[in-house]
Specification:
507 residues, two-stranded antiparallel ribbon, 3 domains, elongated, alpha+beta
């Protein structure tokens, strides 16, 4: 046998690498959850015994094998709590391990918010005084759950507060910005696709702009430079907005200063005048370009329109900022976030709150919070009352918006109906041109004919403005009065990721 073969046989067997920290954390989490579950069981069984149940464990919906795992100290605590509970119904049923359907758009967790239930008035969430573990929290930190809580809170808020959001200063500011941008940037002669135009500008900015050259003097890593340039466009709002872009930029190349407005304006001018760079496939559908003058489809002309699109996108950034500010400054909305996090009402029923205490049939919803100690009950709250008194638990809301296919028209300041009205406008103008040539002749009294033709074109464009652009601008205010979800839906926007930070209550 060779020396190498002998050494291979002497090598110890390889075992998978174990992350001890992860294992310990998992153990502690499981231990904490199990302990809480056993306390819930103990309270249910003790209560059922006080109600003279002949089968208190079975009536609580607890398997005898699980009941056998509940220690004597926990059973003692259960008796002390149950003795002070008064009448909660004929029996208590342990619901901590039950599940229900989750109506959140992005959520997946189906664990009941009520830990045990009695009658309809007593769907109880149990909390231990002084606890700061996961059991003391009101909601999961998972992004899907956070988004679900946020979206549900908006629905609760709108149904119950009867607030005209268009009169809120932050919300009104957002809508005013949007409508003003729409009016100023409404176009019927755009020859470039918005998304493709942004990609084209980004490609130039990252590959051959003088901005790239300047950054390479500071940072040799070309990958970092490219990443920095892409993030810089996001920070400006020129491409898809990233609210964390500025923080990321400072960490990526600490020595580099983020470009300011004046410097970026120079970059836009440089892009238009850069003869070495030819735009790619950026034009709209050919059917809209049949009567467009060839010079308007040349490289520089297309670049100018792309730059306009970029600037309109940047101008829309304050709208998003204003809406986020509206969310963070709205105490009433925060109350409903606490309510949804604690009750799970929309999560498990798919319906917004009627404003009162929930007394429905869905047992996964919690309508009471019971705080206990080892010696009995410390305090008790109706969930709705607790939520209305504790908006301060929500200390941060951040929302990013994802545009749907219609976002193309929002960024241009015009509604989706523009896509259907534009061909009609084009046809009207072409028909006018045909009639004018056929009926009036080409050369007789040219000056008057040109004037008449010009006036008729103005009338057509004016009708288009009245029919499409102005009508939509006015509609924005009407939709705002119906609430924010209606507005976002109408504009083709979707709250794709809401990051909600909620403090753990001091029970």
């Amino acid at each position: 046998m060779s020396l190498r073969r002998s050494m291979e046989q002497l090598r110890p067997a390889r075992t998978p690498k174990v992350d001890l920290q992860e294992r310990v954390q998992l153990f502690l989490t499981e231990a904490d959850t199990t302990s809480a579950t056993y306390v819930e069981m103990a309270i249910c069984v003790a209560y059922n015994k006080l109600k003279k149940s002949k089968t208190p464990v079975e009536d609580a919906g607890i398997d005898e094998k699980n009941w056998a795992k509940v220690s004597e100290p926990l059973r003692k605590t259960g008796k002390l709590v149950a003795a002070k509970m008064g009448n909660r119904g004929n029996r208590l049923i342990h619901a901590g391990t039950s599940t229900a359907s989750n109506y959140y758009r992005l959520g997946s967790d189906t664990t009941s918010k009520a830990d045990f239930v009695g009658d309809g008035n007593n769907l109880i969430s149990l909390k231990k005084a002084g606890d700061s573990s996961s059991g003391a929290q009101l909601m999961s930190a998972k992004s899907g759950e956070a988004t679900g809580v946020f979206e549900a809170a908006v629905l609760h808020y709108q149904k119950n507060d009867k607030v005209n959001l268009s009169k809120n200063k932050d919300y009104k500011k957002a809508i005013d910005i949007l409508s003003n941008q729409m009016q100023k940037t409404a176009k019927n002669d755009l020859n470039v696709e918005v998304a493709k135009g942004k990609v084209d500008f980004s490609n130039w900015y990252v590959t051959q702009s003088s901005r790239k050259t300047d950054l390479e003097k500071i940072e040799r890593d070309k990958k970092k430079v490219s990443e920095f340039l892409n993030l810089e466009l996001k920070a400006l709002g020129a491409t898809r907005l990233d609210k964390n872009a500025v923080v990321k930029l400072k960490k990526l190349i600490p020595k580099a200063k983020i470009i300011n407005k004046a410097q970026f304006n120079k970059m836009k001018d440089e892009y238009v005048k850069d003869d070495t760079y030819q735009v790619g496939d950026v034009k709209v559908s050919a059917k809209y370009l049949t009567s467009v003058a060839p010079e308007k489809l040349e490289n520089e002309a297309l670049k100018k329109q792309i730059v306009d699109v970029i600037q309109t996108s940047i101008n829309s950034k304050p709208w998003q900022d204003s809406l986020t500010q509206f969310f963070n400054n709205n105490e009433e909305l925060k109350k409903w976030m606490v309510y949804e996090a604690a009750s799970g009402l929309y999560k498990f029923t798919g319906k917004p709150s009627s404003g009162g205490k929930y007394k429905g049939s869905q047992k996964a919803v919690a309508n009471k919070i019971l705080v206990f100690t080892d010696n009995g009950i410390k305090s008790e709250y109706n969930v709705i009352d607790y939520a209305m008194a504790n908006p301060q638990l929500v200390n941060n809301i951040s929302v990013s918006y994802k545009g749907s296919g219609r976002s193309k028209y929002i960024k241009l300041g015009i509604s989706a109906s523009y896509e259907h009205e534009l061909p009609m406008l084009t046809e009207e103008l072409k028909e006018l041109e045909r009639q004018y040539v056929l009926n009036e002749g080409m050369f007789k009294d040219v000056a008057n004919k040109v004037k008449n033709f010009y006036n008729k074109v103005k009338d057509i464009v004016k009708r288009f403005y009245e029919k499409v652009i102005k009508r939509f601008i006015m509609r924005i205010y009407e939709i705002a009065e119906q609430g924010i979800t209606n507005l976002l839906d109408t504009l083709g926007l979707d709250i794709s990721n809401a990051n909600v930070k909620m403090k753990t209550p001091s029970w």
